[in-house]
Amino acid sequence: MGFISGIIKESFFLLNRMSPYLLFGFLVAGILHMFINTETIGRHLGKSTFYSVVKASVFGVPLPLCSCGVLPAAVSLRKQGASKGAILSFLISTPTTGVDSILATYSLMGGFFTAFRVLASLCAGIFSGVLANLFLKEEGDFSGEEEEECRLCGVSGAHEHPLSHKIGGLFRYSFGELLGDAGLWIITGVIIGGAITYFLPEEFINTYLGTGWKAMFVMLLVGIPMYVCGTGSIPIAVALMLKGMNPGAAFVFLLAGPATNTVGMTIVSRQMGRKALYIYITSIVFSSMALGFLLDFLWRSYNREGLRRILEHQELIPGWAGVAASAVLLALIAAAVLRKNISGLNSGKGGTR
After folding, report:
1. Residue 51 near residue 64 (C-beta atoms within 8 A)
2. For a Cys staple, 258 with which of 17, 32, 95, 264, CB 3.0–4.6 Å?
């Protein structure tokens, strides 16, 4: 039982550092969801220009959508008239960041890594969109094909809801739908991070994964095909860095993992063609490796304190507040997952009638 208690101890250390920032991040995510609609965004992304690609990447950075949740949003934007370049830019910058992921990165990895992750995700999205604009042709006019449904009642067309209804919808989305989708992945990532911290010897990374481009390439191979949440991947990356992995390799995992998975690649291929899929994967591979090397250089040159010093720095939030936030977060995740499962069972029963 000793190793179980050790894993739990390390996992709760990670969770207590993340929870206050995650709760605030999910709240901001609900605000963005309730008051920013894809129809408004789509009007800005219709032309195959550099400016539309930049706007798509900027729009995507704060949105709290994972690598699967971003797919219906991207399809909706496409139907609203967004160009292929803008869509690919949005597909990369969105799942790799998000307000919840940004705050969680700061809570565990400090301001230096957080700023780099945000700017690098922005650049990776822009790079993919520019390639798409150069090599992909637009086919047909997609604008105005579908009117967006209201996020509160599901009704299309112009109508209004009182502010109290919007606030209720905000909390239902933040701590219901969104937390139900991401909660288990966050817990999984925290437990894996705790297990790595407890079990993995510090010499393992250097012995078996190597450093520099070798470790980056391994993380690339691991990250591209699998589904990993942008927030849930953070404690895994932290644990690997604490065991000796270079920051660049950890960043490759944080970019390539959330930005891709087999389902997403299939939808990109079907919606925009195989050529778009090749550009999508190639841009992620090139961007993650190049930005990983850049991070290693900057880390050595300007971030002399190292990750351990960052993790041990004076906490902005008291320890008791982290424990309380963890308890609240775990309770909300349990409630959201339970509601999601009950809703799925009820819809299944209704479908058999």
Report:
1. no
2. 95
